[in-house]
From TrEMBL:
Transmembrane feature ranges: none
Protein name, per record: DNA-directed RNA polymerase sigma-70 factor
Family of the protein in this entry: Belongs to the sigma-70 factor family. ECF subfamily.
Alphabetized UniProt keyword annotations: DNA-directed RNA polymerase, Sigma factor, Transcription, Transcription regulation
Keyword Transcription regulation set for record: yes
Length: 174
């Protein structure tokens, strides 16, 4: 991918990577206003930092890195955030009237669990869920491949503990 040198080329770059940017915003923000703000902040940081891109990695890797660093930084500035978590699944999820609702509910529960992770853990699990290799994750985050593997293993265990009440409740209802 070529480094954009014009405003129009930059807009095209943002358009081509929009889905990834939206996923980052969805993982790190709860309200649409916060998602929009983060998207704008990421876009600004990408524009400002474009001249510093050296080409040592793929442009998409650099975009991911800037996006995640922006989100992590913004999350660190919002320490006052109060988030309420549900202790139990809603009735409709426990009943599970069809497979589609179960899949949607499982995804919603997974995102609730991810909300409880630290910002860097969110970044790592997002990349993992996007099916990036450990090598790609390490490159994007700026850690060794082995460290990425160890951190992801710990995050998966942490998520299992967070999600255990939901899993136990679901099995009891089956």
């Amino acid at each position: 991918m070529e480094i954009p040198t014009s405003e129009k080329a930059f807009e095209q770059l943002i358009f081509e990577n929009q889905a990834m940017l939206i996923k980052v915003c969805n993982i790190f923000c709860k309200t649409q206003t916060d998602k929009d703000d983060l998207f704008q902040e990421i876009t600004i940081n990408l524009w400002k930092g474009l001249s510093s891109f050296k080409g040592n990695s793929k442009l998409s890797t650099w975009i991911y890195r800037v996006s995640l660093n922006t989100a992590i930084s913004k999350a660190g500035r919002k320490k006052k955030r109060l988030v309420q978590y549900q202790d139990k699944l809603p009735e409709s999820a426990a009943i599970g009237s069809n497979d589609d609702s179960i899949d949607e509910e499982q995804i919603r529960i997974l995102y609730k669990g991810i909300e409880r992770l630290k910002p860097v853990e969110k970044a790592l699990i997002l990349l993992y869920l996007e099916e990036h290799s450990y090598s790609e994750i390490a490159d994007i985050i700026g850690i060794s491949e082995k460290n990425a593997g160890v951190k992801l293993h710990r995050i998966k265990r942490k998520l299992e503990k967070i999600l255990q009440p939901y899993i136990t409740l679901k099995h009891a209802e089956s």
